[in-house]
Amino acid sequence: MPQDEQRQSRRRRRSSAEVARLKALRQAHAEKLERVRQDEQRIDDALAPFAEAAEAIAAAKRRYEERCARIAARLERDLADLDRARAKAVEAAAAERGALKEVLDDETDELRAVMGQSVRTIREVGTGMPETAALLGVSVGEARRLAAVAKRAAGHVSLAESTADGPAHEASSATSASELVPEVEAVPSVELQGPGAAADGE
């Protein structure tokens, strides 16, 4: 009988130990599940701001790209305006340079005509072209060109003078012709008909 009690006592002790072990396992498992739940909650809590931040970054990039597109469009318009303004400025500058060149050409043409007249004057006294060029300190070719300029200028002056004298000359010729007509009419008809006509009349 005492042996049976001992065996039962050992069984109770083993049962108590097993129960305690199982309880400890259940407690550990419950704690593990709680930790997993807390970890999942922490993950969920971390995912929300991450997603919001990612969406905010995407929105910021979209705003950036839209603003950059507007800046690029404005830059293109500004550059086009600058190109048009540059073209107008270049055109205006070219016109001004052209006008100044015409003034310069007129001034230099007149002065070169004076120089050319000097060449012609020196040549008229029998000085050769090489000697004339050396005397004036220019090349023979330049001396010839200056003489040609003076010759053209003299031709223009002569043409202008003849054109100015044209109407007066025509008027004087017409006056002379009108003065001659009455003299012809005043000649007797007998003289106009000749000696044969007078004999016939007699």
Overview of the structural elements:
The chain is an all-alpha fold and 202 residues long. The chain has one domain (11-165). The chain is 94% helix and 0% strand. Helix 1 packs across helix 3 and helix 2 packs across helix 3. 4% of the residues are buried. Mean pLDDT is 79; it is low at 168-202. Residues 157-181 are annotated as: Disordered. Residues 169-179 have a biased composition (Low complexity).
What is the N-to-C order of secondary-structure elements (H for helix, E for strand)? HHHHH
- Which spans have pLDDT < 50 for at least 5 consecutive residues? 168-202
- Please state the structural category: mainly alpha
**Mean pLDDT, all residues:** 79
Q: Which range does the strand content fall in?
A: under 5%
Q: How many E strands? A: 0
Total of domains: 1
Alpha carbon gyration radius: 63 Å
Q: What kind of sheet is the major sheet?
A: none
Distance between the termini: 221 Å
Helicity, in percent? over 70%
Tell the overall outline: rod-shaped
Instruction: Supply the number of helical segments.
Output: 5
